[in-house]
Write the structure tokens for this entry.
Amino acid sequence: MTHDTLSINGTGHKDTNPVLGWWAGGVAIGVVLILAVALVQPIGVSTQYVVLDGVLLHHVLPDVASKSPYLAKTAPGWTLATYEFFFVLGIPLGALLAAMATSRFTTRVVPPEWNTRFGSNPGHRLVWSFVGGFLLLFGARFGGGCTSGHMISGVSQLAVSSLVFSVALFASAIVTARWLYGDGGKR
């Protein structure tokens, strides 16, 4: 197993071809959304992190958890045995299974783009990944939904707030990518 993201094919060259086209991923997400809406409810992910926090806090400090109106509202019944939580658990599990099934699993922590720009220190990369993930989750909860809740479920329902969110997300992603990697990683 190499530390590259892409597998080495029989010719000794890295396989840069995607397993499926971008359109197949879009169709698959659409089918999952249709099934979710028909069977349970629209897709959303970020709330389940708060539910996990609430359930854990309720088991450790039940008085503190019960006094939080936000946690009491977000984690009713103080249980993780819900469709939404298992859906969220399936995301990394599905990614792991797909990476293993296509021989593209890697343990590499530092992508080449990051290495070129900021160096090869995995600790540095993990700290900044954690900070970015924290800010993303905080923003998702502050904004009332994450990319799956707004961009998949909300846009499909033509929710104005989701359309505004999507435009703002793409604009900020472009600005951030240009700021971090716009000069090809040479600074």
Observations:
- The first helix runs from residue 22 to 39.
- The radius of gyration is 20 Å.
- The chain has nine helices and no strands.
